[in-house]
Design brief:
2 helices; 22% helix; alpha+beta
Amino acid sequence: MDPMERLLAERACERLILDFVHRLDLGEPSSVAELFTEDGVWQWPEGDRLIKGRDALRTYFGSRPAGRLSRRLMSNVLVTVVSSGAAQAISYFTTYRVDGYEGGVIPAGPPVQVGHYEDTFRRAGGAWLLASRTLHLPFGGATPRANSPLA
């Protein structure tokens, strides 16, 4: 690959990483399935979760509880292009999340998760897609219920 092709591939994969968390936090969570290949995989080995295929991914991410408010911060995104059709990445994340959100401003608490993702990407039909996403979670806790909105 020439340097410009590599740069464009890296940027496309970075964009998928960010699009994933934006869809979970600000969009329609089930739509993250569209960012994966047809046989894409999301897994959390320590949580015994393995979701395979777009339909299963759509169902899994679409089953998030009503009233869940979350914001994820992504950092240290490092994409490595392996070939013209394959790439991998590692990125760190911090998740702030509450259940039972009904609007307004609520007191900020500590993050409920801090970890990293390991991703693999494949180029399919000219577009880069997630082939697999593996969650590694060294810091995690229960999702708290939202407190009363601040006045």
